[in-house]
User: Which sequence fits this backbone?
């Protein structure tokens, strides 16, 4: 297999994944939004969810980015130990980001945090962000997540005394949603990462918020139960869509955990706005690929 | 909840009729302005210099659009609202001095803006966050762009819109501020919710 051909295949797959992700809201999310539209009783909140659903339809019909904030690009990569070439992956994914910025177009969002300099193509130091894990087999799989700024703005990390245990987790999640109010464009998906360390808690919280499908149960039964309890509790706050008051402030709570040091109990909380952008590509060693949501 | 179809320029009597939770579909001219444009408007005001748009009876939209230039014409591709809270610093003065009647954004605004709305006859309405295509679809044309030196998202985009909405009134001229009321209520429920969760 010619490396050059494989490189082009990865770039095309990534470009297609970015394009799909910014235009089409994934089916699980659309379904959840339709469900809450039919169940919401507050007229104010219903007007907002109705506008969201019309916007999603229009974006599909006109093939335009569903939200003008096309975010910063995050790639979550899983590459097989037997995949023919590892070193071409990063370059192809960065190129796809540059091309997508021009062709779709995306809003050029990445700026130097100190000088404000904007290279204009959504790249820069650590950008697009590429997270690589190795897996068995010979395929390359990646999910692209264009992550908006409004929902990221309200992320938090708590470091309670570990002795407070699950009570601290519950309080942290309720307080984070309360403090976020209308800012992350509710209804949101709340990702919660427990344990590990500061970075690990936030990393797994973000993956839980952005990658996990709505409606998928948590494989750990005690966390599945906690997710359901928190879902009910958060919606009792009554913040509603866009903070105008209503029954649905969150679409789901997704929790993940990592083993921790006994002296710490990190709790990372990351929000995903209703405009969930994600698409996955699978590239075979022969260069054939498919993209799905 | 009453639905109103309004056309710019807005009269003070028009907006004084509106109440929290009413819905507006707006036609006419709106002007986008974000942080940098607000800052410059205030500077011009202090220095006694005119601004390049007439905001009397006008509408400010907190938005940094994605635009494309096709055959010498600007087209708004996507134009949902940005978080209004950042403009809290300036908005009361803008309402007071330029005669703005309607502010559109997302997430609501604070007490200073609500006070100016009551005193001078203006309202704040939420347009659904993230609904960029829905907004762009209501824009008939870009009339003009001013202060382009601030960059595309921060410039003043003067837009002709038709049936732009739904715009949900969350600050009216009676002093009500729906978003603040909702958050206040949520805060009051916090302890009871935590008790049920056995977290306190």
Assistant:
């Amino acid at each position: 297999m010619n490396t050059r051909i494989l490189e082009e295949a990865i770039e095309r797959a990534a470009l297609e994944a970015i394009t799909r992700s910014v235009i089409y809201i994934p089916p699980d999310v659309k379904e959840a939004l339709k469900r809450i539209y039919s169940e919401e009783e507050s007229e104010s909140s219903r007007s907002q969810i109705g506008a969201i659903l019309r916007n999603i339809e229009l974006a599909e019909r006109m093939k335009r980015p569903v939200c003008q904030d096309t975010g910063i690009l995050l790639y979550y990569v899983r590459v097989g130990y037997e995949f023919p070439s590892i070193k071409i992956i990063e370059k192809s994914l960065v190129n796809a980001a540059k091309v997508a910025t021009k062709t779709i177009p995306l809003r050029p969002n990445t700026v130097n945090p100190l000088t404000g300099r904007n290279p204009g193509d959504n790249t820069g130091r650590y950008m697009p962000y590429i997270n690589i894990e190795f897996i068995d087999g010979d395929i390359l799989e990646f999910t692209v997540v264009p992550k908006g700024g409004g929902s990221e703005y309200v992320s938090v990390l708590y470091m309670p005394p570990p002795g407070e245990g699950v009570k601290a987790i519950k309080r942290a999640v309720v307080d984070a949603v309360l403090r976020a109010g209308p800012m992350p464009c509710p209804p949101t998906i709340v990702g919660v990462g427990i344990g590990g360390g500061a970075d690990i808690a936030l990393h797994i919280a973000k993956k839980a918020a952005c990658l996990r499908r709505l409606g998928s149960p948590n494989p750990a039964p005690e966390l599945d139960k906690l997710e359901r309890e928190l879902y009910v509790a958060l919606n009792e706050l009554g913040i509603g869509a866009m903070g105008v008051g209503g029954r649905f402030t969150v679409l789901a709570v997704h929790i993940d955990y990592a083993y921790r040091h006994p002296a710490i109990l990190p709790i990372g909380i990351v929000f995903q706005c209703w405009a969930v952008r994600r698409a996955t590509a699978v590239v075979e060693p022969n260069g054939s690929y498919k993209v799905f949501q | 909840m009453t639905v109103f179809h309004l056309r710019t320029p807005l009269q003070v009597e028009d907006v004084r009729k509106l109440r929290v939770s009413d819905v507006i579909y707006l036609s006419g001219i709106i002007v986008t302005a974000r942080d940098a444009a607000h800052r410059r408007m205030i500077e011009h005001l202090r220095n006694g210099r005119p601004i390049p748009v007439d905001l009397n009876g006008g509408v400010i939209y907190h938005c940094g659009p994605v635009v494309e230039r096709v055959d010498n014409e600007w087209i708004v591709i996507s134009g949902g609202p940005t978080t209004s809270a950042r403009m809290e610093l300036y908005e009361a003065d803008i309402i007071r001095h330029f005669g703005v009647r309607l502010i559109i954004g997302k997430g609501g605004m604070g007490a200073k803006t609500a006070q100016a709305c009551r005193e001078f006859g203006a309202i704040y309405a939420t347009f659904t966050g993230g609904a960029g295509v829905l907004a762009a679809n209501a824009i008939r044309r870009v009339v003009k762009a001013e202060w382009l030196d601030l960059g595309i998202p921060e410039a003043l985009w003067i837009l002709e819109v038709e049936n732009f909405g739904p715009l949900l009134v969350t600050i009216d001229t009676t002093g009500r501020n729906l978003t603040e009321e909702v958050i206040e209520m949520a805060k009051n429920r916090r302890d009871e919710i935590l008790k049920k969760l056995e977290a306190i």
About this structure: The mean pLDDT of chain A is 97. The beta strands of chain A are 72-80, 129-135, 140-147, 156-158, 188-195, 250-258, 267-272, 279-283, 289-292.
